[in-house]
TrEMBL record:
Species classification: Bacteria, Pseudomonadati, Bacteroidota, Sphingobacteriia, Sphingobacteriales
Compartment(s) where it occurs, according to its Swiss-Prot or TrEMBL record: Cytoplasm
Top-level EC class: transferase
UniProt keywords, alphabetically: ATP-binding, Cytoplasm, Kinase, Nucleotide-binding, Transferase
Name under which the protein is recorded: Cytidylate kinase
GO molecular function: kinase activity
Primary gene name: cmk
Binding site for ATP: 11-19
Domain Cytidylate kinase, first and last residues per copy: 7-219
InterPro entries: Cytidylate_kin, Cytidylate_kinase_dom, P-loop_NTPase
Organism: Pedobacter alpinus
Length: 224
């Protein structure tokens, strides 16, 4: 098998990127990296420290105190913030409500992209996010751009959070997804945009198995 294949999955919030990325990693025995978890963990750090999020100088200076690491278990992506596993906490609403403004800061993005590119060296990997096919790995062999009906996306995320016992409303989730998509697509620094050579995958009416089959067909030429 050819080594160092990168599958880049980008798209809007909650449209199934990480579900597909994990399933692909498991099936193909690739490493899975959730780049969104990195922006979320950085945001959590600032929230825990009560940092003034409008003070970009403070945020940029503090970046050197943030150490992020992944450890892979069962093709899940577990993230460590300064040695502490925070995979669950970064999914909660306070982080979701603030992450896109932190992710829009140029210096934050530079630091994350550097780290992501290092992780992709000499490994077969699936990475999902917003700028993977455009900025992080513009030469990725396979690029997928995922989308789905906004209402369906909100319902899926709502069901997921309710099952975890979070106290949220469907309206709150819908608004958060719409707000993040707005910030992510309109920011100056590597906004969410489909790479010209990315294949669109709209999974509004697809099951998780169907979207996996679709992606495998696109990757197959590179792995045989
Ligand atoms: O899973 P969900 O769609 O809720 O989002 P995520 O992938 O965890 O990403 C959270 C936020 O991080 C996004 O809304 C973006 O603001 C930011 N992000 C980014 O800017 N670039 C990436 N490569 C990944 C995430
Ligand atoms: O990573 P991203 O934020 O794009 O989305 P996700 O966390 O992979 O998916 C959000 C929710 O949609 C999860 O609960 C998935 O199980 C669900 N999903 C689904 O119901 N059908 C699909 N075809 C894809 C995802």
């Amino acid at each position: 098998m050819v080594k160092n294949i990168v599958v880049a999955i980008d798209g809007y919030s909650s449209c199934g990127k990480s579900t597909l990325a994990k399933a692909l990693a498991k099936k193909l025995h690739f490493i899975y990296v959730d780049s969104g978890a990195m922006y979320r963990a950085v945001t959590l750090y600032f929230l825990r420290n009560n940092t003034d999020l409008s003070n970009h100088d403070l945020i940029i200076d503090a970046l050197e105190h943030i150490d992020l690491n992944f450890h892979s278990r069962d093709y899940q992506s577990h993230i460590l913030l300064n040695g502490e596993e925070v995979s669950e906490e970064i999914r909660q609403m306070p982080v979701s409500e603030n992450v896109s403004r932190i992710a829009a800061i140029k210096e934050v993005r530079k630091a994350m992209v550097r780290k992501q590119q290092k992780m992709g060296k000499s490994k077969n990997m699936v990475m999902d996010g917003r700028d993977i096919g455009t900025t992080v790995f513009p030469d990725a062999q396979v690029k997928l751009f995922m989308t789905a009906d906004p209402k369906i996306r909100a319902e899926r995320r709502y069901n997921e959070l309710i099952a975890k016992g979070e106290n949220v409303s469907l309206e709150e989730i819908f608004d958060n997804l719409a707000h993040r998509d707005f910030l992510d697509t309109t920011r100056e620094e590597s906004p969410l945009v489909r790479a010209e050579d990315a294949i669109i995958l709209d999974n509004t009416d697809l099951t998780e198995t169907e979207q996996l089959d679709f992606a495998i067909e696109k990757i197959r030429p590179f792995i045989v």
